[in-house]
Amino acid sequence: MEQQTPQPITESKIVGVPTPRIDGPLKTTGTAMYSSDHHFPGLVYAWPVTATIASGTISGIDSSSAEKMPGVLAIYTHKNIGPLYRTPPSAGFSMILDERRPPLEDEIVRYYGQYVAVAIAHTVEQARAAAEAVKVTYNKTPHDTSDKLLDTPTIAGKLKEVTKRGDTAAALAGAAYKHDAVYSTPTETHNPIELHASVAVYKDGKFTLYETSQAVVNHRDVMAAMLGVPPENVQVITRFLGSGFGGKLWPWPHALLAAASARNLNRPVKLVVGRSMMFQSVGHRPAIDQRVQLAADKSGKLLAIQHDYVNHTSMLDDYDEGCAESTGFMYSCPNVLATSGLVRRNVGTPTSMRGPGAVPGLYALESAMDELATKLNIDPVQLRLLNEPEKDESTGQPFSSRHLKECLTVGAEKFGWAKRNPAVGSMKDAEGRTLGWGVAACTWIATRTDAEVNVELRQDGAARVACGTQDIGTGTYTAVAQMVAHETGLPLQRIDVVIGDSGLPPGPISGGSWATASVVPAALQAAQQARKQLLSLSTKTDGCPFKDKSVDELEFVDGVVRIKGQSSGGVPFAEILKTANVRSVSGTGKSTGLFGDPNQKFSFHSFGAQFAEVTWQPEIARLHVSRVVTVIDAGRMINPRAARNQIEGAVVMGVGMAMLEATEYDHRSGGPINASLADYIVAVNADCPNIDVTFLDYPDFNLNPLGARGVGEIGLAGIAAAITNAVHHATGIRVRNLPVRIEDLLVAPGNKTS
Amino acid sequence: MRSDVRDYTLTAPGSLDAVLSALAANPRLTPIAGGTELMVALGVGRLGRHELISLDGLKELRFIEERPETLILGAGATFTDIRRNAAIAREFPLLAQTASWTGSIANQNRGTLGGNIANASPAADNPPALLAYDASIELVSATGRRTLPYDEFHLGYKKTVLQPGELIYAIHLPRRFAQHRQYVRKVGTRNAQAIAKIALAATALIDEAMVREIRLAGASLIDRPVRLHATEALLLGKAITPELRTQAAAVLASEIKPIDDIRSTAKYRIAVACNLLDEFLLSL
């Protein structure tokens, strides 16, 4: 299909208007059904047994006493789970999963927490008690959970080139100003409040699966392939998601345990993954080492960027974090080389976590830029402005819409950057506490993927819009309703949005920040098609005042069909449908994505600038992120209210990334040791800075007719670097190993700055 | 792995006298009040076999009584009760503050002052404030009552003077701190719902630039909630000078024995304890 030439829509009564979530009342009243809320007659519960070694083989599983426990229906192991298959290679956005091995495939254990059996019982307590009574013995082999990654053996044996231009080695060798440092980020766990869960219903060879999924269509395809049934025999439903952050993009082994158990027992099975298991077998952001080398001339013009990163992956799957995603186009620079490497560790398979690649990648690159600015004695905002490219130098394409310079200058103005004294520890607040100010630039991909949307105008006066995408808490229900409201003129309360079901026309994944942008063209087209059918019906219906008019003479405005330009004499569309005794008219819109299209004309990205202030109290080594100014260039905001919410949430997550979050492995057992919300420290309200969010309003009409891109991830990019840069400004200590541990910042006695 | 509830028995006699009789008859009984410690241990499988006796809802223990000379807090007073009490807010702000740091709102609704003390964690939020206010502790058993300085209550890591069959009845706070300088500071990994890396509470009475009275107490400085007597003794009766502050830091550093653990390092704790003390002394 050819790319649509978009007809830019510049005016709208509803697109761009801050709008409360249409699904808000359902959530605040507890009416919204999350996946694990579903219940069915005869439903039974599953509780997994997890490996307590990180490497080895199962030598025996004794489930004899567990099987006799009250309420127990079955204990499944690799010997009796029944057929589970591997998926064929993924194509497009189908057949994607990160841990490709079906659960219980064999007796080999490759990470602590791997499922080795599952107990099924009438109550969750009985299932859990039975799971804990299963005795598993192992032949243990040595494991490796080390977080030293750089300069350890990679899978490929050498680093893979990600982007390259010029001669980086020569430029680095000859440059007057250089920077070379390694930045490390730890394993991070997504920790959405809603636990991963599956409720599997099996009847007459068909599976209905209530899943915690950010991508119901792919989930359906994967489950069908792994269960060995045709895709039409599987329906995946995720009406609401208690957040995912990427951790719920692809299916994880527990979903197969639930579905296979339902099949084996021929009754509904519910499996809710426990919080400690959430640290083991549903993905994580991998530990990463990144070496960044920069070279510049005296004026600050970049001469070379070399970015080598290594991330850990599991023993079976090759997960590449993609840290150099933006290295090739972020700045103008003649010599660029970025490489990636993967190293195997005995850990669960990593997966996308909000802003995969760019978020850790920009922590490294933007920290390095700050260090270079210090060496050059150039203001860090200025250094970035100096190196602004004219085009995407990695592809030669023009940027579709890039306003990074304006993000930086607007942010600097709002933040008060001109008052910054660059001397370390020189700035104080009214109470005498030391202030540190840091800045980082950021970017995130913008694109569209394939989407199909159906819009129906019904006799009851409402519109129904259906698409196999899902709302992961970001406001997709509302954004889709706004698109249809724009096109039909109907108020939001008369638009039913039906999503979160793989049986609907295939829609985009809720990942990559592109769900909204992807739906736009198809949703508008579907509404237009429905309108055409309505107008056509009006001209063919006996008793309708427009009978025998030409469709071209009519228009559909604010839910009313009328003669073009005449504000009187209109007929509400429901009346026309009633007169015609037609239940509904409908239209389908279909759009082809740009993702991965080698012929696209533009380099599509969002941009932003992050300014952070930390308050530093050297006497108690207390660090607080007190203020963040964030300026985002992400096209037009369909719903600025939900968009602001996304950015604010991302900033708070960035505070966690910079200051608090790390999954620690116990290298003796190989298991995550702080596997609870008490010990895995995320930011709480008291840690939140004052957040000032600004959106630059530059619609990106090359991407879709509304000019919308997406804001799910960009708010997190750059935050950690802005904070560590601020920490350096306050303390003189450069943290290159996240999170910032305040013990590292302790001023030695006699070396106080206060 | 969660503990197996079949490993426990729970009795709930419903009155203090009945609880004390039961404890006298069976000294193996473990009292459970708000359950914010024991239920966590149960949830993660760290609670061994126990016979539990419930103090939950005992009216005799849940009170805050204002007398002319003292404020008496029943062991069953919750942290929410403490936070909402006007007399505490007015006269014992350090305790109002530490109650607000204790766990989450849900923990504060369930958790009791007596439970926090009996649990005897060296990192507990409230004991330093009680020590700084020169609290007394009243214990009760089937055979009688005794009251002793709270400073003498903690004997070592999770060890207290409580005898089998004995419960904490109340905390007595002398109402004479209106003129004192008061200070408390907690340093945690994040700004709420974090166990203290270290905390310091202090009260001092300054008269004609001399330290007439001083009490210093801390959390996570040693194996128990602790008064810092050696440092107090150095400071008592003197004027705060830069030299004295330096000496005080040295005495404090030798008086405490913090550890390296998951939350912080001994080095950090010593340095920050000294800095907190200095911050307090500078404010006098």
Give an account of the 3D structure.
The complex is a heterodimer of chains A (754) and B (284). Chain A has 754 residues and is of the alpha+beta class. Chain A has three domains: 35-142 and 193-279, Aldehyde oxidase/xanthine dehydrogenase, molybdopterin binding domain (Aldehyde Oxidoreductase, domain 4, 2-Layer Sandwich), CATH 3.30.365; 357-444 and 602-745, Aldehyde oxidase/xanthine dehydrogenase, molybdopterin binding domain (Aldehyde Oxidoreductase, domain 4), CATH 3.30.365; 448-591, Aldehyde Oxidoreductase, domain 4, CATH 3.30.365.10. Chain A is built from 14 helices and 27 strands. In chain A, a hairpin with a 4-residue loop joins strand 18 and strand 19 (463-466). In chain A, helix 7 runs parallel beside helix 14 (719-731) and helix 13 (640-659) crosses helix 14 (719-731). Chain A is globular and about 85 Å long. Mean pLDDT of chain A is 96; it is low at 748-754. Chain B is built from eleven helices and 14 strands. The mean pLDDT of chain B is 94. The interface between A and B is medium-sized, with 24 and 25 residues.
Primary descriptors:
heterodimer; A: 754 residues; alpha+beta; Aldehyde Oxidoreductase, domain 4; 3 domains; seven-stranded mixed β-sheet; five-stranded mixed β-sheet; 14 helices; 22% helix; B: 284 residues; Uridine Diphospho-n-acetylenolpyruvylglucosamine Reductase, domain 2; Uridine Diphospho-n-acetylenolpyruvylglucosamine Reductase, domain 3; Enolase-like, domain 1; five-stranded antiparallel β-sheet; four-stranded antiparallel β-sheet; 11 helices; globular
